[in-house]
């Protein structure tokens, strides 16, 4: 069994290499000038990972960037192997004059993950519907009747279910969670407030801040920090 890292261990191990820890995974972006160059970056990352590529690496190619994600897919967690692969990939990018970076404070959005939270009185009753209608599956090692569900090909946001004790018809029951790098959160919140949003609650910060638009629809900006004593 690979060594699963704590949130802080994973974050501290890769931050100075331009990677960020997000929701159990390590993620970075490599700026490129064309889709041809993007494919070359992807090929180099796969080569560096070797036999570990299929179990750990996911690649999203765009004409201006390549998004690289490392996670032990059968564990849905970050491991020491992922940290090692991140370092090797970053070194390989430097060798060809490229860089791995989280795109923080660049004017574009940083690397991130998006989740959708659904309020439910009976999670076990509603979960099968969302699993079926979206074509989703349970996460590796976490496919219980109240666990989150995920896109098996990694394109759509994860869906998790928030237990409600009583109906709240005057409150939206679906909200977005935007997991950003811990050092991006304040900038993202400031941008949302400047765009007309309001801060609903910061009582659980830095794990998450609850924001709302002018009509009261809520979204949370989240980080790995402040969870489980981290």
Structure description:
The protein is an alpha+beta fold. It folds into two domains: 7-95, Gyrase A, domain 2; 113-222, 2,3-Dihydroxybiphenyl 1,2-Dioxygenase, domain 1 (Roll), CATH 3.10.180.10. The chain is 28% helix and 26% strand. It is built from six helices and twelve strands. The strands form three sheets. The chain has a six-stranded mixed sheet, with helices on one face. Strands 1-2-4-3 form a four-stranded antiparallel sheet. α2 crosses α4 (80-95). This is VOC family protein. Pfam families: Glyoxalase_6.
Question: What's the quick description here?
Answer:
It contains six helices and twelve strands. With 230 residues, the chain is an alpha+beta fold.
Order of helices and strands: HEEHHEEHEHEEEEHEEE
| Proportion of residues in β-strands | 25-35%
Largest sheet: 6 strands, mixed
Radius of gyration: 18 Å
| Total E-strand runs | 12
Based on CA inertia axes, which overall geometry fits? globular
The CATH topology of the largest domain is 2,3-Dihydroxybiphenyl 1,2-Dioxygenase, domain 1
- Under the CATH scheme, the architecture of the largest domain is Roll
Structural class: alpha+beta
Q: Which stretches are low in confidence, meaning pLDDT under 50 for 5 or more residues running?
A: none
